[in-house]
Design goal:
Chain lengths: 336, 473
């Protein structure tokens, strides 16, 4: 981590004034996208035994690469811990940070970042051992709680216990792995993080069935990819990559039927896939940018099901992450 | 003759060819280049940071931190500021470094001497210890100890408990009785010392005097209680509320809380310290003048325990103990030593001691064999030879590398971030940096702190080295 910070400092010192060349040009020049990802979180960003990355955030980066290069493999994933992720982004070590990061006011206003489309609406929760015999987070008074440091989780936990006038002991670890290990050895009574992550970390326990996730969700955690401020074009590309995937789902365009849909007569499908108009131009991309995304990665719903939903080990329900038309919060502006 | 003459008259050379001038010029140019590079780097970083909207000032210092820390030596809560979080982290680092250095030194010296021991078992043990611990990465050792400590310990509800000792003494009369017993014990010690050397009396002397003190300090309160026969008063008894608990949340101890009048107890302790120092000095003078030794250790111990105890009883037991009580998930109240702290200190001490042991061995071996042979010839036994002849000379060789081991230990304490101990790097460079985004400022401050700690340690060690240096002849 020290190394990374040093790199960050030297980057800050060496990069000549500001963003003279756009991020998109730089990416095209080097031939790949640098994507800051999780060090290992099932469902969001995790390399398998062959070194191939999978996950919702990972596919988001692949979608951007597909839009730029028409090749989803032109991504270099750089695993970052919670505590050095923003420094890596600020310093230019990564082009985009798709690492289940929460969009907050201070991160956007004070860290000099922009958060693109929310690709997962999450909230913080707790899990605890069944033998503690509690059914609510409000019964956690006096508990020792393991947490990953450098996250909004630490702050939400402090707020939650202060609001409810309860005592606790928080033990903060550099990585989620260390934190979950400490929970497993009994150092902590509970483990807290975003609910989606709770389900994924639970799988790492020796006896996952002895632990339950408590029903309370104590915070709003809109997880969104982030970019540096100062390059609106690049910000637009990242944001609209998400919207393209959402629009595709809404229009029923999938990885399987996208070629067929090219012949569709529906104007909005034709605009999305670049048959009509040239909407990629404003982003600095080709007009079939959205076609490339769906062709190589799929729409949002497909990506969700594959990584965290029905067809994954996590089996998380769509819930808030369903389309607005199906009672969820995922809503994309139109391609027009 | 002619050679010397040529040297005395400096030849007239052009300024550029004058070696002294050229030396100065090179240094000046180098300094200018380095400084301007530094300035360019700093200015460039500041400009870039401003351009990207990253804060470049220290405004965050007084903002509310909003997170909690589980081991704080000063009052701290989620509503404290980032500056206070920094202080908490710094103090935790200093605590670990201080405790670690003391124990690493003790263990390291013991092992270093053991490596040179004539006892096969001791020598082999020390060798295996040094070769093993020196060659396993510290982070691995820390994680190992953390898990080794946590795994076998029970949950809070099944804590290992030790019953406490409760001591109450309400009465000034029984206090007088204690004084009498103390005087008796002193008399016993003196009498024991009066025996001829080599006789059975001299052999039993230390045992007899120690026993005398133990009887005076422990048995007498029981006697006093029996004399007055007050139930619950003037009693020293076992098995009150349990005072010691051990579980996977740490070691819980009763926390002393100081009531009114406890100032007298502290004053008595200070007086005892001063008195034992004076006694030690006087004993040294006496030994220098007459050769007679005094029981320094015993008297100091008696003073250090006796005086505060007398004050404690005379002022009506103002220092009470706050016992840890199991409430819900955890114990509340009392004093807690976290497993993270123990694991960190243990890992750092065991690792650093293996290096110190090697330095001690090198230092001892650097002392000429004739020195210890001469000491033996004078009739000194092995232990005083080592203590009074060899080690003082070896210290000159040991000190410089020992200093760098102390610095290493301090800096290595930052590995605590992996086992969740809230020291400077974990709190300040971890959470604070992440919440504020002020990476450059936070790292600059952290580096400045480690530099200051290191320079201070080196300075102290240099001071000690100068005091113990040999007078050059």
């Amino acid at each position: 981590m020290m190394k990374r910070l040093l790199i960050a400092a030297s980057f800050a010192a060496c990069v000549t004034t500001g963003a003279s060349a756009g991020v998109l040009d730089t990416i095209k020049q080097k031939g790949f996208l640098s994507c800051g990802s999780n060090t290992g979180l099932a469902g969001f960003g995790l390399p398998d035994d062959k070194g191939v990355w999978t996950g919702l955030d990972v596919e988001f980066c692949r979608a951007i690469a597909a839009a730029i290069f028409n090749d989803p493999t032109k991504v270099k994933f750089i695993p970052l811990t919670a505590k050095d992720r923003f420094t890596a982004l600020q310093s230019g070590e990564v082009d985009v940070l798709a690492r289940n990061g929460t969009w907050t006011q201070s991160r956007e206003a004070e860290l000099g970042l922009h958060f693109g489309g929310v690709n997962y609406y999450d909230g913080q929760g707790f899990m605890t051992r069944k033998k503690n015999n509690i059914s609510s987070a409000l019964e956690l008074n006096g508990a020792s709680i393991c947490v990953q440091q450098g996250t909004t989780t630490e702050l939400n936990m402090a707020d939650f216990f202060r609001t409810n006038n309860m005592k606790y002991e928080g033990i903060a670890f550099a990585t989620a792995d260390e934190a979950i290990k400490a929970y497993d050895t009994g150092r902590c009574d509970a483990f807290t993080t975003d609910v989606s992550q709770l389900y994924s970390e639970k799988l790492k326990l020796v006896n996952p069935d002895d632990t339950i996730v408590l029903p309370e969700v104590i915070s709003k955690e809109p997880l969104a990819p982030a970019v540096r401020q100062g390059d609106s074009q690049w910000f637009n590309i990242v944001r609209w990559t998400h919207y393209a995937m959402l629009n595709a789902e809404e229009m029923g365009v999938t990885k399987a039927n996208v070629d067929e849909k090219m012949k569709s007569q529906t104007p909005e499908v034709r605009r999305l896939l670049g048959v009509e108009g040239d909407f990629g131009k404003g982003l600095g991309l080709t007009k079939d940018w959205a076609y490339r995304i769906v062709k190589h990665v799929g729409n949002y719903g497909e990506s969700f099901d594959r990584n965290v939903g029905e067809n994954s080990k996590l089996k998380i329900k769509r819930g808030q992450n369903n389309l607005w038309s199906k009672g969820g919060l995922q809503y994309a502006p139109p391609v027009r | 003759m002619s050679e010397r003459g040529r040297e005395a008259v400096r030849p007239q050379v052009p300024l550029l060819h004058d070696p002294r001038f050229r030396g100065l010029l090179t240094q000046a140019v180098t300094a200018v280049v380095v400084l301007s590079l530094l300035w360019v780097a700093v200015d460039n970083a500041a400009t870039n940071m401003r351009a990207r909207g990253i804060p470049t000032n220290f405004d965050f210092w007084n903002r509310v931190a909003g997170f909690d820390i589980n081991q704080t030596l000063i009052p701290y809560s989620a509503v404290s500021t980032y500056g206070q979080a920094f202080q908490v982290g710094l103090l935790n680092t200093l605590l670990v470094a201080g405790v670690g250095i003391v124990f690493a030194t003790l263990l390291g010296f013991t092992l270093g001497v053991m490596r040179l021991s004539s006892n096969w078992a001791a020598r082999s043990f020390a060798t295996v210890y040094v070769e093993t611990l020196r060659n396993v990465p510290l982070l691995l050792q820390l994680l190992f100890w953390y898990n080794a400590i946590l795994s076998p310990l029970p949950a809070p509800r099944a804590s290992l408990a030790m019953p406490s000792v409760t001591l109450t003494w309400p009465d000034a009369a029984s206090f007088g009785l204690a004084l009498g017993a103390g005087a008796l014990a002193i008399f016993a010690t003196r009498f024991a010392r009066g025996q001829t050397p080599g006789s059975a009396g001299a052999l039993l002397a230390p045992i007899a005097s120690a026993l005398g003190w133990i009887v005076a300090l422990i048995a007498l309160p029981f006697g006093a209680a029996a004399f007055w026969g007050e139930p619950g008063g003037g009693v020293l008894h076992w098995g009150g509320p349990a005072g010691l608990y051990l579980n996977n949340r740490g070691l819980l101890l009763p926390n002393p809380s100081f009531g009114p009048g406890s100032g007298w107890v502290l004053a008595a302790l200070a007086l005892a310290v001063a008195a034992s120092v004076l006694y030690t000095l006087q004993a040294r003078r006496r030994q220098a003048a007459t050769g007679a030794q005094s029981p320094v250790g015993l008297v100091s111990l008696a003073l250090l325990i006796g005086l505060p105890l007398i004050a404690f009883m005379a002022t009506g037991a103002p220092v009470t103990l706050d016992y840890p009580v199991l409430r819900g998930f955890n114990f509340q109240g009392g004093l807690r030593v976290n497993p993270e702290f123990v694991a960190l200190v243990l890992g750092l001490v065991l690792y650093t001691a293996s290096f110190i042991a090697e330095e001690v061995r090198a230092g001892v071996q650097s002392v000429a064999k004739g020195q210890s042979e001469a000491a033996h010839a004078l009739g000194l036994r092995a232990s005083p030879t080592l203590r009074l002849v060899v080690l003082p000379q070896a210290m000159r060789v040991i000190l410089p590398p020992l200093t760098s081991q102390y610095l290493n230990l301090t800096k290595n304490s930052s590995l605590a971030v992996f086992i969740g101990y809230p020291e400077l790097v974990q709190v300040f460079m971890g959470t604070v940096l992440n919440q504020t985004g002020a990476a450059v400022q936070v790292i600059a401050v952290t580096m400045a702190v480690y530099l200051t700690i290191s320079l201070a340690t080196s300075g102290l060690m240099a001071l000690y080295a100068r005091r113990t240096a040999w007078a050059e002849r």
